């Protein structure tokens, strides 16, 4: 607004001997003699400088978070977040350019923008699997739950000895925190990252008879293998690798549910039927069938066992068309080999008789 006012006053009245300048919440006008060429030139120079300053300030105010994004790109410092896949997509689209049509291009551009990214949710999964004592494991790795567990660390004190202490400024309090606001979520994610990488160093290097502090270099070296691996929820793979090929799927096969009578299937009933086995996703497949994606292999095994003889639904492991074709090709190949072997044996026998 300041720039617009200043521009209008300058454009309309400077030639008539009126210049302007700003003070906080005020605009001041000053008259001068336009016939004095020296004075006029001086006022024009000053006014031009004021306009450039106001224009720059207006531009900066309109950029908003883009300024932070550009600083992050320029700094090339590690980017840390919790379950941040959608955050990366949002930043890319809002502050860089439209999302690309394919994943390969997205990964390439993300590596150029942010060559080092860490996801504390993915890191927490990896560390939890390394803890042999179940009492040391956290039961939930949502951001606030993980933060509280690491903050109290009653069961993992030995893994966080000499851990640097993180304190908020005096006028801030976690009790007044607001979840899912940028500042607080950033603090929580950073807090979790610092604790998690120290735990990794402890798990990798600590000896039963030796307790020692770990340098930041030690900690970053331990977490390097988890760099650029972004947690994915309810996907074919459990994470996205921004810097390399995708991991092999650890998810169980989908489950095919069909009505035994051939009647139209109801997805809500299928979802309700599987609810006791854990979190599932159900997708309509055809008039009388649906696909169910389960969270883990235990859930898949138990649900298949318990629902195998269901009176209304036929429940089985789903084999996609691709799997069917591959299996068919393998079987045909084996059959061809067998027939070829029989033919070759026959020719050898006949030839030997001749």
UniProtKB/TrEMBL annotation:
Q: Which residues cross the membrane?
A: 324-349
The yes or no answer to whether the keyword Transmembrane helix is present is yes
A Gene Ontology term for the protein's cellular component = nucleus
Q: Could you tell me which InterPro entries the record lists for this protein?
A: CAF1_poly(A)_ribonucleases, Nucleotide-bd_a/b_plait_sf, RNase_CAF1, RNaseH-like_sf, RNaseH_sf
Keywords of the record, alphabetical order, are: Membrane, Transmembrane, Transmembrane helix
Q: Which GO terms describe its molecular function?
A: 3'-5'-RNA exonuclease activity; RNA binding
Source domain of life: Eukaryota
Q: Name one GO biological process term.
A: priRNA 3'-end processing
What family, per the record? Belongs to the CAF1 family.
Put simply, this protein is called: Poly(A)-specific ribonuclease PARN-like domain-containing protein 1
Native organism is: Cacopsylla melanoneura
Q: Taxonomically, what lineage is the organism?
A: Eukaryota, Metazoa, Ecdysozoa, Arthropoda, Hexapoda
């Amino acid at each position: 607004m300041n720039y617009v006012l200043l521009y209008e006053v300058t454009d309309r009245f400077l030639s008539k001997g009126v210049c302007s300048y700003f003070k906080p919440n005020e605009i001041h006008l000053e008259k001068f003699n336009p016939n004095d060429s020296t004075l006029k030139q001086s006022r024009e120079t000053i006014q031009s400088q004021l306009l450039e300053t106001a224009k720059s300030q207006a531009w900066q105010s309109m950029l908003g978070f883009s300024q932070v994004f550009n600083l992050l790109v320029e700094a090339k410092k590690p980017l840390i977040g919790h379950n941040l896949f959608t955050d990366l997509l949002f930043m890319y689209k809002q502050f860089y350019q439209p999302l690309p049509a394919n994943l390969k291009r997205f990964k390439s551009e993300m590596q150029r923008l942010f060559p080092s990214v860490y996801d504390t949710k993915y890191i927490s999964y990896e560390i939890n699997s390394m803890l042999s004592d179940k009492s040391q494991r956290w039961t939930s790795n949502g951001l606030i739950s993980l933060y509280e567990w690491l903050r109290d660390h009653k069961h993992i004190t030995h893994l966080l000895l000499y851990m640097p202490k993180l304190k908020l400024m005096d006028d801030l309090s976690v009790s007044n925190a607001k979840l899912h606001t940028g500042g607080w979520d950033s603090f929580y994610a950073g807090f979790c990252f610092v604790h998690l990488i120290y735990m990794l160093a402890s798990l990798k290097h600590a000896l039963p008879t030796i307790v020692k502090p770990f340098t930041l270099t030690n900690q970053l070296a331990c977490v390097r293998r988890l760099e650029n691996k972004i947690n994915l929820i309810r996907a074919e793979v459990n994470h996205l690798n921004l810097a390399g090929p995708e991991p092999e799927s650890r998810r169980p096969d989908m489950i095919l549910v069909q009505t035994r009578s051939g009647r139209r299937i109801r997805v809500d009933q299928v979802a309700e039927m599987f609810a006791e086995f854990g979190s599932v996703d159900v997708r309509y497949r055809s008039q009388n069938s649906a696909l169910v994606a389960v969270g883990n292999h235990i859930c898949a095994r138990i649900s298949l066992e318990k629902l195998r003889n269901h009176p209304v639904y036929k429940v089985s492991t789903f084999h996609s068309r691709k799997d069917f074709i591959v299996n068919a090709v393998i079987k045909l190949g084996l059959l061809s080999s067998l027939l070829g072997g029989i033919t070759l044996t026959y020719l050898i026998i006949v030839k030997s008789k001749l």
